[in-house]
Amino acid sequence: PDVSFFADVLPTLAILRKRGVKLGIISDGYAVTQQNKIAALKASALFDKIILTDTLGRDYWKPDERAFFMMKEAFGLDFSQMVHVGDNPEKDFYIGKNYPILTVRLDRQNGVYQDRAYLGGVKEKMRIGSLFELLPLTEG
Q1: C-beta atoms surrounding 46 within 10 Å
Q2: 43, 64, 71, 138: which is deepest, by most CB within 10 A?
Q3: How many other C-beta atoms lie within 10 A of the C-beta of residue 68?
Q4: Alpha carbon separation from 44 to 7, 101, 108 (Å, rounded)
Q5: Which residues are registered as beta bridge partners of 105?
Q6: Radius of gyration, CA atoms only, the chain
Q7: Which residues are CB-neighbours of 65 under 8 A, at least 6 positions away?
């Protein structure tokens, strides 16, 4: 696939990694497509854990919570220590209804999911326009 990162992604990931932040991806979509994107972006080298939910079965796709539990266990964290960044209101923020994960909506200009409704009316706890806005969460 012809994919690339937005300009804020690699610098933000580098700073977060330098600060010791564990980085993970939980991605829905058909496994082959997602695997091809991961390979094209060389994302495996940038993240500590990648969960492609389709490899576990379609019933694992978000808003199902099992991938979040898997990430929590892999990193040895409590939900209150986790931040989930997403862009799709139809599925990305619902996890925040029952668990104290800080859900963050990355709301880029002309984003694909801008006009989508929130699943169950559950909204993100924080909204950002750039990944750089995550950096203050990990300072100090």
Answers
A1: 17
A2: 71
A3: 20
A4: 18, 24, 24
A5: 86, 127
A6: 14
A7: 95, 98, 99
pLDDT more than 70, % of the chain: 99
Residue at 66: amino acid letter:
R
3-48 pLDDT, tens digit per residue, is 999 999 999 999 999 999 999 999 999 999 999 999 999 999 999 9
Q: Name the residue with tokens 């979040």.
A: 68
Listed in sequence order, the residues at least 6 apart from 97 whose beta carbon sits closer than 8 Å to its beta carbon are 120, 122
Look-up: residue for tokens 């500590």?
Answer: 48
CA 42 vs. chain centroid, Å, equals 17
Q: How far apart are CA 62 and CA 4, in angstroms?
A: 23
Q: List the beta bridge partners of residue 52.
A: 27
Q: Report which of 71, 88, 114, 117 is spatially closest to residue 29, judged by C-alpha positions.
A: 88
For tokens 């006009």, name the residue: 115
